[in-house]
Amino acid sequence: MLAENTNFVKVAARSDIAEGKPRAVRVEGHSIALFQHEGAIYATDNQCPHMGYPLVRGRVRRGVLSCDWHGWSYDMEGGGCFTGGCDDLATFPVEVRNGDIYVDVASGGRKRDDAHFLLLTEGLLTTDNWTLSKAIAIMLAKGVSEEETLELMVKHMGGHVSTDEEAFNGGRKLAMLMNGVKVARMYEPEDRLIPLMLAAGGAAGRLGDRPDRRPLPPPMDWQKLEDWIRVFTADKEWEGIEKCLITARRLGGHDEKIVPLLFECAVQPFFINHSRNLINLGHLAELLERFGWELTEELVCNLGAKILGEGRGRPSELHREAIQKLEEISPLFDELPQDTSVDYDEDKFSAALVSGDLDEVFDTLTEMLTAGVPINDLATTMVMMAGDRMARTPVNMSPGWWDLQEEMELGTTVRKVLRYGGTKVAAKALYHAAWRFFENRWLNIRYQPITVPRTSTNLVILDEDAVLSEILDGIESVRIQEIGRRTREYLNAGCSAERLMAEMGLSILKDDNGHHLLSSIYMVSEEWKTCESHPARNQLIVGLARWATDIRRNAGNDSAVQTAHRFARGETATELYE
Prior knowledge:
About 55% of the residues lie in helices and about 10% in strands. By secondary structure, it is an alpha+beta fold. The protein has five domains: about 10-105, Rieske Iron-sulfur Protein, CATH 2.102.10; about 115-205; about 220-310; about 330-440; about 465-560. The strands form three sheets. It has a four-stranded antiparallel beta sheet with strand order 2-3-4-8, with no helix packed on it. The chain has a three-stranded antiparallel beta sheet with strand order 1-10-9, with no helix packed on it. The chain is globular.
């Protein structure tokens, strides 16, 4: 007779389990499947490791247990998976004592401690959203290190982008990774699954073959490399830029100079129509600051080089005009006054931004800079103008949501350029951001001064819970014509903007197109706090609500996400309907 073990729990009578008629029992919160096969009793987790289908509905042949849903097969005794690379089945020790079945749940369980990381690796390579969702759900439910999970994503993305992506798509995927991580941090762990899954989707992709990038042979110094990076940027030779960046890293002692140089190159006049370069470099700078050189070197050197060395095509007449104007005013950037307390005519600058006149746009910006208006104040005006335009743009035709989002994103990016690249480079970045407003002159949005308060002087008392529920229902029901008004009424009544933004973000992320709004969810949340005293700041939230409603679709990724949540909690698909 086997020795007594206090971990064993009586779960059923031996007579309850017949050959070919398995039974599910609940033991210490686990759904356990009991099988009699060829005279022996087996106990396994009842949820299939693939998608949680109950295994008591499967079939057994010669010790192989197969799930009836997708056909994944497992060794019923040891739990090894024959179908997937890392999804072994949890099995548990069984004893039969005096006609009763005892199971030791505490001693059984997962066969691989690294199952989560193997799942994540599989999802990153296959770009399968279900696998990624499952890996992230396990991480959140089981207390697996979020930091190690993010580090694996970043490392994988470096290999993927360097071997398989060009500048545009690499930048797009990096934005999804960074925005997903930042949005996830706005929420408690139980609400982080979708943004982290989207972040993982940004990092995912195949890994191609590529020889190691070796540094240039000596003699070599920073000044020589800096000059070459500028030359290769002008010549659109990204491989030369990458080689110089790698060499600079190996020289040592120059790490803090690399990001400022990337920004300095990106604000050259010939990049006037490539403003996303600044946005993507801003994400790279934040990635590097967050994870360090050891983890991000491949991605920073490769994608940074591709951004600066991308093909730019032949500039149009308007582009050439803008380039010429920037070249003519280049001396002023060496003589900018320090930020001073000056009278800032914000309405004059905001009106110039959307005037549709290139001379007025650039000349007014030059006037503001030479007068000593702080760069952060000018960036705030850009952010507020974009938010105000989102809040008021007609939706019966092409509303230009993505164009307006980029206006806002460039305003926030100017703050990053100021932080990482310094005043002179940030001043130049303002012209690139202003060009984007000029490019959007086709948008049919009537100008209104943004210094005029958008709040009502008559305070209306509202039921915050009821109105919040109406706003969220309006977004999900695609009631675009009323959502802006209801959101504005809610904010004007003094209801919690923070609560609205948090709930609205979760509602937006249910949608299959939610990844388009990741950056806006984060930007609106941050800029609403940064621009606390600005009279138009509520327009940021109104604009986000209107956009989220207008692009809403009924089909979303909610099903996969909810399935992943249930899977991580150990619930089977059968329990969903019980």
